[in-house]
């Protein structure tokens, strides 16, 4: 079946099922074209309640679908591919955080939103890459445990020297794999291009960026400036920009920047999730959901 035909079937089915499609910016263009809401994790979280649909098909990874379910428990939330997970979300055990909090009660525990529901439930506040700096700065505590992403945490720590920020060894395997040598090679190959980087990249890489920001920040800059850009996040962003602004040049920072979990979802998966023949419906324990939602509610309060 041709892409356009499948998209039309999905749009028809979406109306019949009273469903919305939410898609992370890393999804393929054919999915982004039929989505009701697109954006990074923060946008997908805070804008969800504005949609009155009964069912949401979340094209992304599992922690995003779980976060959406926390915020909209009355909605049916379906992840098209059950195997679409985030390795970083599982890197820190909740028991380790509880032990740390018992030993260091003066610390606020800040969790990157790329974490499991179980981990969110034992943390004080969640952050996204777009809100981390603002939220950590607003916290009354000087002492902060920032988990799981040591790279985003390092970026925040460098910007807020007045805070005592403790980091653990979590990271995004895709972003963290980019080397300093690759960054220097990309700059040498495209010397006039601006370098836009996600803070999930290592501190060694980020120091050579012209702009550091979330996926939304990178897209916003690239869409509103005329310079060629080296895109230091998932390759789909460079692909998307090249598609919508063909007169400009967008170069991927590294060929390593391809997330297999984000790329696993295709149009056929979305179709089957809508008609009930595929996908994973997200179900969360009510007590766990209430505990975890507190850290999300704090993220929205402090990040607004």
Summarize, please.
With 304 residues, the protein is an alpha/beta fold. The protein has helices at residues 3-16, 29-32, 41-46, 62-71, 94-103, 117-120, 132-138, 150-159, 173-176, 180-189, 203-206, 215-224, 235-244, 260-263, 267-275, 286-303, and strands at residues 19-24, 37-39, 55-59, 76-79, 108-112, 125-127, 143-147, 164-167, 194-197, 211-212, 229-232, 250-252, 280-281.
What does this structure look like?
This protein has a five-stranded mixed β-sheet, with helices on both faces. A four-stranded parallel β-sheet has the order 6-5-7-8. Strands 10-9-11-12 form a four-stranded parallel β-sheet, covered by helices on one side. It is an alpha/beta fold. The chain folds into three domains: 3-85 and 263-286, Rossmann fold (3-Layer(aba) Sandwich), CATH 3.40.50; 88-171, Rossmann fold (3-Layer(aba) Sandwich); 178-255, Rossmann fold, CATH 3.40.50.10800. It has 16 helices and 13 strands. α1 (3-16) runs parallel beside α15 (267-275).
């Amino acid at each position: 079946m041709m892409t356009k035909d499948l998209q039309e079937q999905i749009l028809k089915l979406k109306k019949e099922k009273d469903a919305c499609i939410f898609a992370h910016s890393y999804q393929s263009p054919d999915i982004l074209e039929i989505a009701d809401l697109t954006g990074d994790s923060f946008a997908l979280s805070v804008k969800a309640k504005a949609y009155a649909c009964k069912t949401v098909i979340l094209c992304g990874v599992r922690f995003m679908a779980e976060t959406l379910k926390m915020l909209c428990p009355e909605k049916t939330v379906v992840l098209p591919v059950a195997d679409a997970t985030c390795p970083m979300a599982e890197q820190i055990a909740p028991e380790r955080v509880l032990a740390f909090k018992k030993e260091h009660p003066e610390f606020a525990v800040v969790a990157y939103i790329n974490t499991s529901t179980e981990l969110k439930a034992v943390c004080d506040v969640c952050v996204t890459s777009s809100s981390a700096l603002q939220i950590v700065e607003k916290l009354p505590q000087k002492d902060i445990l920032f988990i799981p992403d040591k790279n985003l945490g390092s970026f925040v720590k460098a910007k807020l020297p007045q805070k005592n920020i403790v980091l653990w060894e979590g990271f995004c395997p895709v972003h963290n794999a980019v080397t300093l040598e690759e960054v220097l090679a990309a700059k040498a190959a495209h010397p006039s291009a601006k370098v836009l980087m996600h803070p999930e990249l290592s501190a060694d890489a980020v120091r050579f960026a012209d702009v550091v920001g979330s996926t939304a920040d990178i897209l916003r800059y690239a869409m509103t400036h005329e310079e060629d850009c080296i895109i230091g996040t998932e390759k789909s962003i460079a692909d998307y920009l090249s598609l919508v602004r063909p007169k400009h040049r967008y170069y991927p920072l590294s060929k390593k920047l391809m997330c297999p979990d984000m790329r696993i979802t295709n149009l056929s998966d979305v179709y089957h999730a809508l008609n009930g023949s595929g996908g994973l419906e997200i179900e969360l324990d009510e007590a766990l959901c209430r505990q975890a939602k507190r850290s999300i509610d704090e993220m929205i309060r402090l990040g607004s």
